[in-house]
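Researcher: Going back to the complex we discussed earlier. I've cleaned up the inputs and rechecked each line, so this should be the final set. Can you rerun the prediction on the complete assembly and write out the structure?
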Amino acid sequence: MKLSTGHSAALDFAPPEPVDMASGKYVRLWQGPQHPGITGNMSLELILDGDTIIDCKTHVGYLHRGFEKLMERRTFIQNFTVVCRIAVPEPTFNEYLYSHAVETLSGIEVPERAIWLRTMNLELMRLASFLMWIGGMSGAFGQYTVPNWTLAYRDFVLDLFEEMTGARIYHMYIVPGGVRAGLPDGFEKRARDIMDGAEKMLDQVERVMFNNTVFKARSKGLGIITPDMIDPYGIVGPNARACGFARDLRKDEPYLAYDQLDFEVITGSDSDAYERAYLRLQETRQCINLIRQCLDKAPTDGPFQADMPNVLHWKIPAGETYVKAECTRGEYGYYMVTDGSELVRRVHVRGPSYTHAIAVMERLAVGCNIADIAGLMVSLHNYPPEIER
Amino acid sequence: MNLKDLLSPFFVWQRAFEKPYTTIRPTLDRPGAPAYRGFHINITETCVGCGSCHEICQNHAIDMVAVEEFQGRRGDSGLRPRFDYGRCCWCGLCVDICTAASLRMSNEYAWISEDPTSFHFTAGVDAKPWQDNELGYRRAEGYHLYPPKRIEMEMLPAAESVKSFDEVVKGYSAEQAKKEADRCVECGICVATCPAHMDVPDYIHSIRDGDYEKGLQLMYRTNPFPATCGRICTRQCETVCPVGILGEPVAIRWLKRFIVDQVDAKDYSRILNDQTGDSGHKIAIIGAGPGGLSAAYYLRKQGHAVTIFESQETAGGMLRYGVPSYRLPDADLDKDINYIVSLGVEVKYNTRVGKDIQFDTLLQEYDAVFLSTGLSVPSNMRIQGEEHPRVLSGLQVLADVASGRDPGIGKKVAVIGGGNVAMDAARVSRRFGADVTILYRRRITDMPADLEEIHESQEEGCVIVEQAIPVEILDIDNVDADNPKQVSIKWGEAEMVNDPTGGRPRPVLQEDRMHVETYDCVISAIGQSSNLDYIPKALQEQLAIEWGKFTPGEYQHTTMQKVFVGGDFANRTADAISAIEDGHHAARGINRFLNPDAYTETDTDTQVN
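Model: Rerun complete. Updated structure for the full complex:
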């Protein structure tokens, strides 16, 4: 098989030798399902030899809500209130991709102002998501101070969302046709203040969490993703960028206003848990920069919604499309099929956690110390809700 | 390991001296953002109960429930949204779709109650602590979930339209009609308001589906004059359409017209498939106007033999002789009438009851009689000199034009009045090349004429003089005194004086501001009354006629068992659609009268088609 990255596909996919549990040498241990959102709502079935993991099976299904099916029974406008729930910590990407798919199939052109507001909304979401992730990462390695800082700042970002969209978590702001409102008065100043504070806080995080002997000792060399794993496993986002792949949909296939924003794709060299974490820290800073650029450039007047048909009986011509965007974890995609009726025929949501948390996790866990399994899991940045949809 | 990495983490202590992120106040004290999507508020006075919130709610968290206070209001379903907070997800789509902008959300988000039923409430009716909250989510300006503006109707430009009697309104294309039909929110408030209770949302739906035959069938269930009403209906439906509260109402009339225009007259009998049996009963109808023909249609469908007595040489009544063909072309009126007549309705033209056949004879020979002779006598201005030969009646001018006769109006015309007849007479005069001045005693905003007719008459060059009260018609020296060519009118300016009892402002003549102007003719169009001479005096008393008008009973019946009435002289609105409904309703009444055994207390009107 010729791979697009040009790297070797000489990975061993053979099933592991069966473990003789009756021998009494091994212990079977379940990690999860607990703590919702980060590593929770899925579980790992681990076989231990001493404190070393020799086999790992991922189990999902604890959070299956059947969103794709629910959407087949709701009108196009009603679905927009459902999709945000697919990935709880990052609802906005679902809102954007759902809306974008609907707009693509119905031929709606979104006005300029809405494009910028959407871009800013997505970057704020990325920031909130990364801030929560930093907390999870440091917590998984036993540091309980950093999560208090970053989650507090995440809450400040949620304050911004509350102002901008009317809600903190399920914003329901990006709606087919545009967005639901412009920015409230004084938003820009408050947003800039929070960005300044967040930037300062991230410096402190770097000093406390990353320039830290313990963290380095435990995370360096943990869960290395080698370049030859990228294509066979379909690894995307920071997990792939950390081993040198400059893959970022915002640059590769620019959408929304990304072609008008000034930024470079950040890459690393050696995708272990530390490298991935450090790359995400840098991307968090980049995110702040992008939000500032959006605040500078977003038009402050003009329409923020395209001319819409009456959504109460909105029919979309038969067609299919796949739309994608770069979320914090990599390529997030919506495949949508319409049949000309008032209901969507089929939606498939492609979240990067599916590969990262199941196949990649099973491989990386082998040989890992039981104490590091939570840290390994968080270092892949998975959101179980999007695995199960 | 290096020393820096060992020491750096101790930086964490620095934060111990900084201001904490957390607040010491309880979270409940923290107000939501100004546009927070919190608990619902409904301004029930503004709400019309259209139910769009209920329709869009994906959680089925909203039920529309009857609220006593709002029952029976015009343009109001009498229902109000009831929220179930066990189901709501606070998405706010209900607020976005609200046609009246009465629904919004407060920024309050915490509510604790021991009573689970209190989480199920009718906003604005059941008192809630957040009812007076001024903040919270509301739909942003410029954000719409349905198009607020209607699809513009293409019309003949005024410069063109005054040159001929060609229809001014061009009608929608299929694409335009579909787009306009898309704007309907299917609330059905129009159905309740339409005198004939036409299935408006359903026939509009048929346009969206492209199924015009179904649309035609739906229309004929309640109205056998869709081609006519699709052009000249007074469209009370559009005045209550909730889409019109914040935008422009759905163009219901033009959509009706669109459906009819798509179906060829020769396909009517196949599509409508009306069955006409033989019940053995004979009904006489006096007057082949919309009321009489509507009654004839629904009576024929019940199998009764119907004979219409019409004094004119063609059917249509005021639709033919009172509505100019640039608004209602004869071909379209005939499309409606011909289908009704094709069901076996016998029409005796040029037959005037009271002269060619006696009313008593009809009473004896027929099982029931339906009177629908309308208002055919022009009202007098009650000013001196109005019997002058150059003072014409609006109705006569319109009838002359409709019959192809020259109305003989001259080149400079004054029209007195502010109703549709006045506008029509004025616009017809423009088409005969006259300069037209309309004198109206009140303001333009007070005119009973359709707003659109007022605008179009102005566009076509008619000059409207407001607050002008005719005082006297003056004879002037005409060359031929027996056959005068001109007439003068004296009119005075009026001041609008507020009515202390709360009625509409009254025009008061200003004696010191009088004008005299000479015209080739003065057309009086200030109203009309009925001519009931064909009913013998004794019977007139028995029928309890007051001021030439009837006050019919529940099924259009009168104080005489066999006699039913409908149309302009038997209703308040005096328009075509009300006459059509009167005819339909009288048909139900006559049917009940003829078959008393077939009806029980539980029968609904819909069963008696």
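Model: Worth noting: Chain A has a mean pLDDT of 88.
Researcher: Good, that matches what I expected from the previous run.
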